[in-house]
Amino acid sequence: MSDSLRVESLTKDFAGLRAVDGVSLGVEQGEILGLIGPNGSGKTTTINLITGLLNITSGRVMVGDQDITGWAPHRIARSGLARTFQVVRLFEEFTVRENVEVAAIAATGANRSVAREQANRALVQMNIAHLAETQASVLPQGEERIVEIARALATNPRFLLLDEPGAGLNDAEIEQFLPMLHRIREETGCGILIVDHDMRLIMNLCDRLHVLNYGQTIAEGTPDEVRSDPDVIEAYLGAEVAA
Ligand SMILES: Nc1ncnc2c1ncn2[C@@H]1O[C@H](COP(=O)(O)OP(=O)(O)O)[C@@H](O)[C@H]1O
Ligand SMILES: [Mg+2]
After folding, report:
1. For 28, phi and psi rounded to 5 degrees?
2. Disulfide check for 162: which of 7, 71, 83, 194 has CB 3.0–4.6 Å away?
């Protein structure tokens, strides 16, 4: 079954500010789409709209042929969308395994033993089985981010939305991310929408890129097409290279 996550003419107004302005994009299962753009360009808001954390001003979100616009976040999670947050949110007093299990139970309604199997599989997929009994509060930031992805994977997502998974990680940690995310795509067949500022990660990982600036789409295409697009260089890549 081929499936897609599609966003059609998505718009979000905050008081006096159009944060997302008529954005249309799609991610196929098995595809990795990079959503990039300067700070404040509407990337996180787009993910929040897709996952139901914010009410949509206008536009539609479709998963396959199901219209999920206006659904509550837990119902959207059960339709197969899982996400991570730009600022990591773990239960500090729980172990890594418990954090991942709780996510599986919350998103899929699985019973404890099924959730445990799903959690174990996600821990292996993310190469962190050895951390299962570690309390979340003692994890370094790099491992917290990996646990967050394991939590999302344990819900058996059809689509995985990652908001700056590379933020706060060093080069070596980002280096490990690439094969890990490729492997997730191969093993689960899920579609991945990833927001990140690390251009090496984005350019090497993504099949296609979608570029936002002031809430509007300014370019879409392959990494090579987008990399050489003058509008993208002016709005974003120039600044990234200079930074
Ligand atoms: N809850 C909110 N209320 C008001 N304005 C917001 C809110 N969330 C985001 N914004 C504004 O919307 C714009 C897009 O923000 P955001 O989606 O977080 O950008 P990005 O993730 O691309 O850095 C910014 O101008 C931001 O200040
Ligand atoms: Mg953001």
Report:
1. -85, 155
2. 194
